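Course assignment 3, question 2. Fill in each field.
Student: A.L.
Task: Predict the tertiary structure for the chain below.
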Amino acid sequence: MTSINQFINPSTLPENNTAINTKLFILDPLTVIIKLAILSNKPVGTKICIQNNVLYFQEPGPFQAFCRYFYNTNRTDIQYMYNPIQLACQQFLTKEYSQKTPRMKILFKCAQKGLEKLLETYKNCAIIRLCINYYYTLIANYVDDIYNDKIFHRDGMTPLYGQEIVTALNAQWTQEKIKVILNLIEFLNGDTMAEDNVKSVENIVNNIDKSTQKILD
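Answer field:
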């Protein structure tokens, strides 16, 4: 399978752009999955922005283009979800973890729906759609119990996700926090008070974002 790096303009890749502080684009793996799940309840046209180790949403509207210009963000920010998605799958969708916490697959399937929203948002950009489909496949590789270790290919960001950092990031997610998230995600899937539940999930994740920044500071 072709490496994901070949799908993005080479000038935007971390190893080719010395102006980028790549450490600011390290993301907490499970938070990326949860935010993709949240994205599934956002309107088509919602885009992502990464600033200081936090993934933000920019919903469609008159100020979206201005915000993206002001923060110097563009669609290639999508590339920084690649490693976190794989790492989240490796940690939280193993056979053992799935047997112990079967509802975790519901969260990742909801994240796939978020990727589908991004596909609609970028329906006119074939290269970005190819990337998003690749991410969808990474998740499906674990959700569907395939476990093909040849699907993922290391890129310029992979070395930044050392074992010590990944362990510290994953440790933020206690079983209690995960249980609350999974409960809320089930409500989101049932469309029961979806807006309120999205806000509840976002509140939990906002605290994790702050913790992540401290870990990576």
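Instructor remarks: The first strand starts at residue 47 and ends at 51. The beta strands are 47-51, 54-58.
Grade: pending
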